[in-house]
Each structure stands twice: as C-alpha cells, then as structure tokens.
Specification:
4 strands, single chain, alpha+beta, two-stranded antiparallel ribbon, globular
Length: 140
C-alpha cells in the first residue's frame, strides 16, 4: 500500500477503478448517468452493453470497447452541456477522465479542459485522501 503524500502541482490523478470496486457502487450505472439524453435513450440500462466493436478513425483498427464509454466519447462530448461551467467541479473532472481514456493528468492539465477553474482550485478539490468519485492521485 502506498503512503499518502499531499498532492502538488506535479501530481497526476486518474479514476481509481479499485476505489469503485471497493466502494460497493456500480461504476457503469454511474457512467450511464453521464450520458446525453440521446445516448441514455439508446442504452435503456447499463446491463448487456459492456463491449462493442469500434473502428478507430485514424488507424482503421477495430477494437473492443465499452459501449457506454464509446457513446459518451463519440456523441455526448459534442454537446455543450457535457462539459461546462455550470457543472460541479468534480463532475467536470470525472468527465474529463472518462473521455480521455482515464489517462493520468495533473491539475494544470485538467485546467486545460476546465478553463473556468484554476489549477489551484482543481488541486484543492482533488488533494484529499479519500478521493471524490474515485478520482485519486497516483502515488508512487
């Protein structure tokens, strides 16, 4: 187990899937709640939608991917309501990680996606031991 150190501007964060597994909460159910109305209608529930074939537009490679995540990245992301200043900050951060494939990001990098909040505000939100929605620092 890693020792907790207070995160700083160089600390990278991600959605810790182990947090979701240990929380007793259903990640896919929560993920579905972030879909736009059209995608939510398309996927009436979060069951039986685990994997679909998706063709990468740049490489033409066919890959298996989560249907809900792919819908979110392909359609929901284009909606102005998906990522905006009216959202709670943790919701915006969580959505950034959903659409970027959960690639680790610093508070400064998150600020690039969420320009209405400073990197210091983002860091202050994320610099807690428990994590919000499983968004946690990567501790080495």
């Amino acid at each position: 187990m890693a020792i907790w150190k207070r995160p700083n501007q160089t600390t990278k964060f991600h959605i810790d899937m182990a947090w979701w597994e240990n929380s007793g909460l259903d990640f896919r159910l929560y993920l579905r709640d972030h879909l736009c109305d059209i995608c939510r209608e398309r996927y009436a529930d979060h069951h039986h939608t685990e994997a679909v074939d998706w063709v990468d537009p740049e490489t033409a490679e066919v890959v298996r991917t989560d249907a809900l995540l792919q819908c979110l990245r392909t359609y929901c992301l284009k909606s102005p309501e998906f990522l905006n200043s009216k959202l709670p900050l943790i919701t915006a951060v969580f959505r950034v990680f959903l659409v970027n494939g959960n690639e680790p990001l610093t508070a400064e990098a998150l600020h690039e996606y969420i320009p209405w909040k400073s990197s210091a505000q983002i860091l202050r939100l994320l610099a807690v031991p428990k994590g919000h929605l499983g968004v946690r620092p990567i501790l080495s």
